Amino acid sequence: MSGISLEPLPEQVKAFLANHPDGEPVFMLNLLKFKDKATYHDGEDISGAEAYARYGKAFGEMVAGLNIDGAHSVFGGKMGAWLIGQGEGEWDSVAIFRYPDAKTMFETVSSDEYRKIHKHRKAGLEGQLLIACDGSGMF
């Protein structure tokens, strides 16, 4: 799974913030690959998907508690069959999350509240592609 990572590079953060103006919504497209077995420090025996589900639930609760206007899940689901192109199980799930703007997104995932739940993401994910999209519409 080359080309995927779990954390952004500093230059990626800089480009993300520079290319998405304040006040313009940003949609984060997540392509997710889970570990077969989660890697918690205490050795808890659950799947990576279960660990990530904990993260997803906690993240949703955190965002709701922060009462961020315009921040919400748009879509989440398991990968299905390939219709165009090819693949060999690179991704397990897809999610799209909307933020009111890039600055809010970055502040949210840099908060102390986020750091408390990040362990579930780290325990569950083998890799991820996170793609920032604008809301300009294609069709």
Q: What form results from the Cα inertia axes? A: globular
Give the end-to-end Cα distance, rounded to a whole number of Å: 31 Å
Structural class: alpha+beta
- Proportion in helices: 25-40%
Q: How many helical stretches?
A: 4
Major sheet strand order: 2-3-1-4
Q: Report the count of strand segments.
A: 4
Low-confidence regions? none
Order of helices and strands: HEHEEHHE
Largest sheet: 4 strands, antiparallel
Radius of gyration: 15 Å
General description of the model:
The chain has helices at 10-19, 48-66, 102-108, 112-124; strands spanning 26-34, 72-78, 93-99, 125-134. The protein is an alpha+beta fold. Helix 2 (48-66) packs antiparallel against helix 4. The radius of gyration is 15 Å and the shape is globular. The model has no long low-confidence stretch (mean pLDDT 91).
Topology:
Elements: H1 10-19, E1 26-34, H2 48-66, E2 72-78, E3 93-99, H3 102-108, H4 112-124, E4 125-134
Antiparallel strand pairs: 1-3, 1-4, 2-3
Short account of what is shown:
The chain is α+β, with helices and mostly antiparallel strands and 139 residues long.
Keywords for this entry:
alpha+beta, 4 strands, 4 helices, 4-stranded antiparallel sheet, globular, 139 residues, single chain
